[in-house]
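Recap slide: LCP family protein, sequence and predicted structure.
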Amino acid sequence: MMPLPGSDQARHRPPQQDTRIAPPEEPPRERPAGPERRPEGRRKRRWSFGRIAGSLAMVIVLLLAGVWLYLEFSINRIDAIQDYDGRPAAGAGTNWLIVGSDSREGLDQDQKDALATGDAGGNRTDTMMIAHLPDNDTKPTLLSLPRDSVVEIPGHGSGKINSAFAIGGAPLLAKTVEQATDLRIDHYAEIGFGGFAGMVDAMGGVEMDIAEKMHDPKTGITIPAGRQELDGSQALGFVRMRYSPATPRSDLDRVVNQRRFIGEMVSQMASPGTLLNPFAVVPLLAEAPDALTMDDEDHLHHLVALAWAMRGISDGGVVSTTMPTTSASAEQWDEARSTALLDALRNDDPVPENAIVE
């Protein structure tokens, strides 16, 4: 008989044991094999293509900035362009006087022999050009001044224009050119024998199409006909040659060849194959400080603007001409045509067709 709830027997009944069976305990789970999980905030960084490209671009920018500063402060500078009473007023556009001198400074005898420079004393100018960069959309002009042109040399009477450099260096030459042309010269660039050849070699040569075999009996340099790459020695021989049967007009043919070569050289310098190739552009830039002399007011960005404007010589984007003369000797300028040419440059007008001379 079971005790009634609330009775004394029910209150003193011993507690009954729980006879339910507990489920078996599960063994601890094992972590799968693999690298340990990093604490939050220490995840391994992954470099994306964009981040790598950005870093490379920054390195290139810093490298170019370093090269730019090196060239800016390393190029030779002289006081070439000076003020004086009666100097021509500034006209439209910008005018460069570009000079190729026969300076042998810095060349040892072996280098002189290799370049066939000879041993002439003093410094003269084998090349004199005015590069006119217009302010408007008129084509730039590259004008050769024949070295035998007879002009007034300030303070020294009448003489051949290239003798001004031998008498008074760059300042007297710049003043002579200004007085003879009535054009104000804004910038000056000069390159000597060794520097010219060095820059050509640094580029790996300049490709030219030579119409006929050229041989200079004075220097002994021979350039075969056909398309070829001229090295520094051959290039120097090409731009100096005037005694070859291939240059019957002597200096007049030589200045045409000089402009042709400059056109091809600048065009190849500005090509992606040169600018994007460190094995080509670095040696070229390394040669520049020893090769070039500029006015002390000129800067690297002026030179870059000149090169960029002249890159169209070889494809007709630049008017390439010689100062009109009255004879094959190139001693006297044709007054009417030379005046029309110089007036056009002074006013940024197109050069008249009858003033363009090959």
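The chain has eleven helices and 13 strands.
The two ends are 142 Å apart (CA to CA).
(End of recap.)
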